[in-house]
Structure formats: structure tokens, C-alpha cells
Recover the amino acids of this structure.
């Protein structure tokens, strides 16, 4: 997924995709929102988004 997320302002994360440091770094500094289209936060690395 990180190969797809290049310089964007928002991400819609589906199903088994993982939100981690690699994805957030690939999205770039203009990323403002990450929306999860799933239940719960199992696909989110809890430490990756906190320092951004």
C-alpha cells in the first residue's frame, strides 16, 4: 500500500491494509486525514501516528 500513497492529503484505508510508519512516510508531509473503512483499530500501528 505504501507504494500507492504518494504525496496525498487524505487516505481511505480498507480492510486488511495497515496504517504504519512506512505508509505515513510515503503519504508525505501534506497528509491531513486517515479514514478507516473497517471496525476497530487493529490495522493501525499505535505508535506510528502519534508523533506526526
Amino acid at each position: 500500500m505504501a507504494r500507492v500513497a504518494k504525496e496525498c492529503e487524505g487516505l481511505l484505508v480498507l480492510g486488511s491494509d495497515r496504517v504504519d510508519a512506512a505508509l505515513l512516510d510515503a503519504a508525505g508531509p501534506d497528509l491531513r486525514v486517515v479514514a478507516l473503512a473497517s471496525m476497530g483499530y487493529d490495522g493501525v500501528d499505535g505508535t506510528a501516528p502519534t508523533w506526526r
The longest helix spans residues 21-27.
